[in-house]
Amino acid sequence: MKKNKEKVVIIINPISGVRPKYNIPSLIYENIDLSKFSIQIEYTEYSGHATEIASEAVSNGIKYVIVIGGDGTINETAKALVQTDTALGIVPLGSGNGLARHLQISLDTSKALRAINDEHIVYIDYCMANDHIFFCTAGIGFDAWVSQKFSEDKHRGGFTYLKNALTEYVKYKPRYYKLVSSQGYNIEKAFLVAIGNASQYGNNAYIAPEASMQDGLMDITILEPFNVLEVPQLAIQLFTKQINKNKHINMFRDKSVKIITEKEEVMHIDGEPFRLGNEITIKTIPKGLKVITPKNPSRSIIEPIQYAIEEIHYNLLNDIKGVFNLNAR
């Protein structure tokens, strides 16, 4: 008796990151096992569209929804899948790809697609910041301010994010934050306060090196003010999973935390900027999302370097196209 194929909905964000997307459909059909799955491809057309597509898939009893895009599109898709029987698949094509990197999903599109075929499912935690869901990281302070500037930039990619970070660092002033948790409360003057469900922002920048997405806890990282001479050490520690050893870092874990500010500030949620008021309650919801992860993940040293080089390449191409477009007007 012939087994019915499992229907898979694949959501593609055509404007995520800096890489071209014209070859994605052919890669899907080359790497997804078509003897097991039937494919329905959907393209996002506006903010929030991924959530709508994923919600419809849940209503239709779809077992797997695969998202091809960055952390913002993954967030949009995944928040429609929490507390359901529909599992999320991730093919990273964004600027930072923090969630994919934490879950050891390949940055190579073909490899990430082939991992779907094994149907290896894990349950992960997610978090709520007031009524906003996030899966990877959230934060207030410098990183949130940079996310605001990045969202306003016409260019995408890690190179653009770094440019914005360097530009804004010179102007940014640390603020005071009151943090309330089950361990009491404290008032901190901080450069940033980061909430990690996953270990990193993206691009292997580990703000919470020991964070787990399956322990029911969030890792709260407080970076105190520092001087410009200490920036190189902080940067090295951030990218080598050693930031927790820096003297300006305070860390603790909890199921929930409330951040109170003197006035409303920008908060980033999985890299996207929001204004949530001057009291933000953040809590963890344990094992609320099913995710497809590699059955036998391989740790490649070359792959992240190659991905970074390609990001620079595509950024330069986009800049050149932009110049020609301006001259053509």
Shape category = globular
CATH architecture of the largest domain: 3-Layer(aba) Sandwich
How many DSSP helices?
9
Mean pLDDT over the residues:
87
Main beta-sheet strand count, sense and barrel state: 6 strands, antiparallel
CATH topology of the largest domain: Rossmann fold
Q: Level of helix content?
A: 25-40%
Tell me the strand order in the biggest sheet: 6-5-16-13-8-9
How are the elements arranged and paired?
Elements: E1 6-12, H1 24-31, E2 37-43, H2 49-59, E3 64-69, H3 71-78, E4 87-92, H4 98-102, H5 109-116, E5 121-129, E6 132-134, E7 137-141, H6 142-152, H7 158-169, E8 175-181, E9 184-190, E10 192-196, E11 218-223, H8 231-239, E12 249-254, E13 256-261, E14 266-269, E15 272-275, E16 279-292, H9 302-328
Parallel strand pairs: 1-2, 1-3, 3-4
Antiparallel strand pairs: 5-6, 5-16, 7-10, 7-14, 8-9, 8-13, 10-11, 11-12, 13-16, 14-15
Helix pairs in contact: 1-5, 2-3, 6-7
Walkthrough of the structure:
The chain has 329 residues and is an alpha+beta fold. Helices cover 30% and strands 31% of the residues. The protein has helices at 24-31, 49-59, 71-78, 98-102, 109-116, 142-152, 158-169, 231-239, 302-328, and strands at 6-12, 37-43, 64-69, 87-92, 121-129, 132-134, 137-141, 175-181, 184-190, 192-196, 218-223, 249-254, 256-261, 266-269, 272-275, 279-292.
Provide a brief overview of the structure.
The chain contains nine helices and 16 strands. With 329 residues, the chain is α+β, with helices and mostly antiparallel strands.
